[in-house]
Amino acid sequence: MSHSVAGNLSRQAVGNAPKQLLGRSFGKDRAWPPQSTPKHLERDAIVVSSVCAQARSRTSCFGTPLSSTGASRAALRLPSAATPLGLSQWQRQRQQQRLRLVPTEALQAVAAPTAGSHAPGQGQAGGSGAGASPSRAGSKRTSPVVLFETRFEDVGLAARAERQGGSFKVVLQLDSPRAMTLHWALDDWLPAPEASWPAGVSTVRVDDKACQSPFPPDGRLEIGFTQDACPHRVVFVLKQTEGGAEVWFNNAGGNYAVQLLAPPIESFVDKVLTAEGSCSHWSLPQRLMLATEVLDAADAAGPEGMSFLFTWLRLSSTRVLDWYRKSNFQPKDIAAIQKHAGERIAEKARSSPHPLSRLLARGALAGLPRGGGNGDDIRMGILHIMRGHGIREGHRPGHDEPFLEQWHQKLHTNTSPDDVTICEAYLAFLHSGNHDDYWRVLWDNGRLTRDKMESWSKPISAWPQHLPHLIPAFQGYLWTLKTTHAGADLDTAMEMAKGFMDDDLRWVIYDILAHRNDWWVPGKIVEARQRLAAYWKAPGSSRDLLLLDIALEGWFRTCLERTDLGQLGRDDLLELIGLCLRGAAITHEEEDLLQCGALWERLRSGGGSGHPPLPGERWGREWALAALAAAERLQLSVAAHMDRLYGLVQPHAESFGSSCRLDPAHVTNFGEEVVRGQPLFVASLLLQRLEPVLRAAAGGAPWQIVSQAGSSAGAVGQVVAVAALSEVQGTSYDRPTVLLAGALSGVEDIPSGVVAVLTRSSTDVLSHLAIRARSQRTLLATCFDDGAWRAWQELAAAGAVAAAVVDPAVGAVMPAEPPPADAATATAAASAGGGAAPQVALQAPERTSAWALPESSFRSGLVGAKALNLATLRQRLAAATAAEAGGGGGGGEVIGVPTSVALPYGTFERVLAEERRNAAAAEAVGRLAAAAGEEAAAGRFPREELEQLRRVVAEELVAPRELVRQLAAVAAEQGLIPSADHWLASYDDAEARAAAAATGDDGASSSYDNDDAPAAAAASATSWPAVWSAVCRVWASKWTDRAWLSRRALRIGEGELFMSVLLQQVVPFRYSFVLHTSNPVTHTPGELLGEVVVGMGETLVGNYPGRAMGFTAPPTSAPLGAGGQSQPQLISLPSKRLSLHAPSGPDGALSPTLIARSDANAEDLEQYAAAGLYDSVTLQPLVARSPDYATDPLLGDPAWRGALLGRLAALGRTVAAAFGGRDQDVEGGLTEEGRLVVVQARPQVEIHSPHP
């Protein structure tokens, strides 16, 4: 046999004529040329499973129900027509594909096996045992991890894929043992190695692709693989022998498959793009069949894969991709194919493991025809009408009506959703007798034109004749067409789904349809959808239920979009946003949006709907601050969700554009059209109306931040004012520019060279402009304060260069002097009066032989200002607390300071010079640093040299053993690690592994080579390799672009900068804060300005969207409870959509970890803060979460919040007093136990306005 049966069937299903399946030819395809047919297929008829058969996931024969969030079903691929790969070629291809696997939640359990784990030995015909690998002495047996599990109902087969240690296994179990043979291969029909063949049965290789393995009497087959030989999936068809006749099953032409590893996305993307761009014979049925082939692979690849499928089908449903290309099909065939595709995609919308994948599958289904019904009724229905009314058909005599004859020919060979539009247009003409109505409905309902219809392979060029007696017949025929093609049409969807719900819900939805234009319908739709969700989300439920939910959601949006928002009161806006969020919770299932909905319910409920209300009088200042924070949080969440959706679909649209030569007009704005078509878009419109009202009630928040700048230092450029952004469309600025636009509409583009757009116009967060701004990391903000806007206009009039800095506490965009690094890149800085930056003199380091220092040895010349300030702070806070206790005051609050040790100045240079294994790295650092200087002297920016410097320092340095010994001893003494052996042992392990790798010995053991994976993971989190990597990355940050430019601007030589590294305990904070003991915004001496966020402080000091909780405390704050204006005053409540938290261990408990912090001699100086120029690196990455403000006391408990603010105000003044009254920037946090901890204090650097 020249090739596999399944390969032939799959090619027939998508390339040529699936005659056994559809009954007529689809035409020939150059992309998949037909191959010779096996003789037994020429002799015997092939019986394939019905297209309508759906392999639904149900309770498997293994005894466990399949989770709706489990791994997706198999990825079905078309076999390539390329030269068949031999076994060695397949192994090489597998090694290449392994390097580019797409990680997904569905298959994330497929990780590197623990050492020594193995599968049971298996023997087989011609094989050596699947997964047979020697186990190490003392290794434990790990439990198998189920990767994939499903049932193929049409053949009564349960399938499961599992991993146990380093072995993978596919288990196939027939419901009832019978004479069945598995015809199988790997991936895209590549030959399976004999080592993987099932044990106990006689497996034979039937051709250069496939093997055949008969099922044993118990109906169970197992196929095993080792880690290195594991494919992405096993593909197969089944052959049943009955009385000498062979019956073949191939999953409706798509093959069966069991997924083992997440597939590389290229495996199906390239296949689809080739088919769409190159096949000479192509049609809508073939597209849908190919879509079902790749559906499981797309789902297994996660949102990136499913977004490709969504983009593809959306381009199809909007007719950007053609539906007919030299190919014909019968109505019954397209009806069956549409039904099968709809059922498969509906199942993904219910059960895909990732919420965004489910949303994308739902979007793909929304644009598909419904399918099903009796497809023959389409073909026979038009014949019955023509014959019953004496209209000529073919050679049959009768009244000559060319339009109906041409349409009849199309219906017989190319029926599609276009026919619904044609029928609606024809009925409109029959009612009026006016051809204008015919052409109008064609365009309005389906965007069909005369030229388009005449270009079809079965063209319709004739104009219809007025035969009004045909109206009743075609009204009935329209319903026939809609049952197959209508998709999410509201009335059709309800008729199809009405039998799958209870009587009460059915009555509610019919009541909605009967009164669909009444004012109360939106609320009823949300209530009905909440009840309907229980039906359509049930495993195996009808796709018609999901189509009905989609149709109801679409009508909800229609109702809201036709509402005059300008006539709505502020309470009406609150209620409508609540309705939007309740509806979104059904569709999106994202934790972030669910939290926004819960917070909004507290905002709008007033305590009347089971949700406790937010504190404060409704529309009073306290309530309005909380409402404004809720609105900003929702705005950020909607924007982030839509930005992610845009980022997923737009690249795929561009791929289709280039592969299929599409009109750029359909591609350029594809992602934006998808975003604006989402139901949440209505919520953004309502928020745009509500936010100004909330700001007025809150008495503050003069700015709306739509898009953050790409740097925490702000956007730096020359300030230029224009009346409207539309005036400068097409303009290119040759220098960084902060643009003041008096007005904008949201559809403009951002001109080249613009780093910030500040405007007076309220900006929709999902507008074209907003999406582009966030994509380009351009600051976009709206100013609502006349005084603040006037200050920016004066800067523009003076031609000043300024930094637009976002202050998260007051929600303001402040003009500030540009940092020297950024001023150096702004070509107008000198002409604007900035002049040359003053040279900063750096302290020369003190030479020392010590590799590591405890806190008691910190002193100037050995460590930087961070370490010195922390040591001083610990001593003075302890002294101040003792003094208060001795003075009879009972003692002040005990403030914690985390333990730390340091690598002193010069350590980096010694590592390069004294460790012989670093000779090559030392040479590279010297050479690249010199090359960077030469490039700069020639007027060029040394981007490539700086990148190489960072890579060499971060990845190629080796730690001297004496450094490790000393640092481990000091760290153990200070309590940072359990013992010095903790680092020394892992250092020796790493050295042994490196030596073994250099000699090619793969058998080197490790102290972490055991099956106690959680314990090993916990130990490795603070192991020496993790510490050394963090330290080297801190050193590498000397050569970031901004740091290098900053030193050049301040004329700091490369040899003058020395980097100490502070190793500090990471304290897991419930809340983090930054305190400025003198207000840098209002320049009020002694007035404390504080900012608080949930979680760790990186979201506060970094460039994370949203506002912190901001407050001020007057210079003479009264004790807590004294009342009056002496108490801390609330400025804003938190709205950041992300919080960062310390990582948890395997048991869920917080895992102790460390942070390596930069402490250079060019940081935290009085004349030069250099904040953010050099990196701090945690040994383990912090975990991002969505803060649940609905349950957080920062918003919901004013008494608790007030007590916290009082403690923070007192803390700020205590720290300032500890440094002799010098104003400080204080960073710290509040632990879960309620203890205040300070992690850093440094002299406060004033933010000066550049206003001349």
From TrEMBL:
SUPFAM superfamilies, per the entry: Glutathione synthetase ATP-binding domain-like
UniProt domain Alpha-glucan water dikinase phosphohistidine-like: residue ranges: 703-793
Glycosyltransferase found in the keyword field: no
Region called Disordered, residue ranges: 1-40, 112-142
Keywords assigned by UniProt, alphabetized: ATP-binding, Carbohydrate metabolism, Kinase, Magnesium, Metal-binding, Nucleotide-binding, Transferase
Pfam families for this protein: GWD1_pHisD (PF22973), Ig_N_CWD1 (PF23166), PPDK_N (PF01326)
Cofactor: Mg(2+)
GO molecular function per UniProt: ATP binding; kinase activity; metal ion binding
InterPro entries: ATP_grasp_subdomain_1 (IPR013815), GWD-like_N_Ig (IPR056301), GWD1_pHisD (IPR054481), PPDK_AMP/ATP-bd (IPR002192)
Coiled coil region boundaries: none
Domain Alpha-glucan water dikinase-like N-terminal Ig-like, first and last residues per copy: 160-260
Gene3D superfamilies, per the entry: ATP-grasp fold, A domain, ATP-grasp fold, B domain
Feature: compositional bias, Polar residues: 1-13
Subunit structure: Homodimer.
Protein name per UniProt: Phosphoglucan, water dikinase, chloroplastic
Gene behind this protein: PLEST012070
